[in-house]
Write a structure and sequence with these properties.
Chain lengths: 191, 220
């Protein structure tokens, strides 16, 4: 594949369809600038600021844009909140739809057949593979991203963080906790 | 004419455990980075739209045996050939053999941040009022269609409830076929686990899809 992709790049460059410098900027953007730390800031703000939380749940696109995160694969956002009785899980059974502007590129497992096949049918066993065991009484809600709406899970704020700043709270928010396959870190666990 | 998507995986039973990876693992080889960038840069030329890309990927006959970025590259080659921007013998020879085609836009390095921040919003002004309201029961279309569609197999012919109304959006089914955006009302429709999977469904499960209005009928 290495050779095949390289020669395709040469053909497209020589034909004048692409600017090779743009390729470097695209790669650098998703390797170093746009990733799950964006989403962690959104969740931490929602935990710290009740009016932002309310805005996020009512109009996620606008609330997230207010922190500077917009655009490709996040044009229309919906935020869904976990509670003691409800756990949200996001999947794209048909391809790999994922909120790039807040979470970056999707992990390989998110795009893989086992996750896409099983998340809608047996989410509890999928969650167990991620080390998450929910109470039997917890309702599971799976969001299959079949159109251009992109979903962000707002996990529950960990106990014992009452005095924490937004920046500190953001360190507890993992990528998987914003997909629904994980829970936030507990205070005091090492990063 | 039949249309055979290899990508409609929801609910299939033959798969084993999910293979996990560290949060910072984005690529598994340098060429995967280039595959991502080439796909985005060619998408930005406007020669095709995202629904055509998804259709090109899901109809690769060997989809199931390819890795994710192999799928992207194979679909990119297919689209380039379909749109006469690259000819099959050029892919074969790995070099340019024919004059270039015409693209309406070339994404320059300096334009990348603004282009990504803008994205490609799919919401359009409604031409007619929404047929369904929040809370209403609906039934999804049961049959197969001979083109790209975003109604997953597991949710066909099922009864659910309108949970959210998202406005009118570019209709993937027509946009993928190159017959226009034909915007349609888009809804989140939620189903019980039992409706989708029958009596052996896990308890306390509900699943939603986002469905355009032509996928839906009032529940009988």
């Amino acid at each position: 594949m290495e050779l095949r992709v390289r020669s395709l790049q040469t053909i497209l460059t020589e034909k004048g369809y692409i600017d090779p410098a743009a390729l470097d900027v695209l790669i650098d953007t998703y390797e170093t600038k746009i990733g799950p730390r964006n989403g962690a800031r959104v969740v931490a703000r929602a935990w710290a600021d009740p009016s932002f939380r309310k805005w996020l749940l009512q109009d996620a696109t606008a609330a997230i844009a207010s922190l500077g995160f917009t655009g490709r694969q996040s044009e229309q956002m919906v935020a869904v909140e976990n509670t003691d009785s409800l756990h949200n899980l996001v999947v794209c059974t048909l391809c790999s739809c994922y909120p790039w502007a807040v979470l970056g590129l999707p992990p390989t497992w998110y795009k893989s057949a086992p996750y896409r096949a099983r998340a809608v049918r047996d989410p509890r066993s999928v969650l167990r593979e991620f080390g998450v065991t929910l109470q039997e009484s917890t309702e599971i809600r799976v969001w299959d991203s079949t159109a251009e709406v992109r979903y962000l899970v707002v996990p529950m704020r960990p106990a014992g963080t009452g005095t924490w700043s937004e920046e500190q709270l953001a360190t507890l928010v993992t990528r998987d906790s914003m997909i629904g396959t994980g829970l936030p870190r507990a205070p005091g666990t090492s990063l | 004419m039949s249309y055979d998507s290899q990508a409609d995986l929801g609910g299939r039973l033959e798969y084993g455990p999910v293979v996990l990876e560290d949060e910072d693992k984005l690529f598994h080889a340098p060429w995967e980075r280039e595959a991502l960038a080439l796909t985005l840069a060619m998408g930005a030329t406007g020669a095709w739209n995202i629904d055509m890309s998804r259709s090109a990927r899901e109809t690769l006959p060997d989809y199931a045996s390819l890795t994710y970025y192999e799928i992207w590259i194979r679909a990119l080659e297919k689209l380039l050939i379909q749109h006469h921007l690259v000819e099959p013998d050029e892919i074969e020879a790995a070099r340019v053999l024919h004059p270039a085609g015409r693209v309406s836009r070339i994404l320059r390095a300096a334009e990348v941040p603004a282009a990504l921040a803008k994205g490609s919003p799919t919401q359009r002004s409604p031409a007619a009022p929404a047929r369904f309201a929040q809370g209403e029961p609906v039934r999804t279309r049961a049959g197969e269609v001979a083109h790209h569609t975003r109604l997953p197999g597991y949710a066909r012919g099922k009864t659910g409830r309108i949970e959210r109304v998202h406005g009118t959006h570019v209709f993937a089914d027509t946009n993928a076929q190159g017959i226009g955006e034909q915007p349609q009302w888009l809804y989140t429709v939620v189903f019980t686990g039992r409706e989708l999977w029958g009596t052996d469904a896990p308890s306390k499960l509900s699943v939603s899809i986002d469905a355009w209005e032509p996928y839906l009928e009032p529940a009988p």
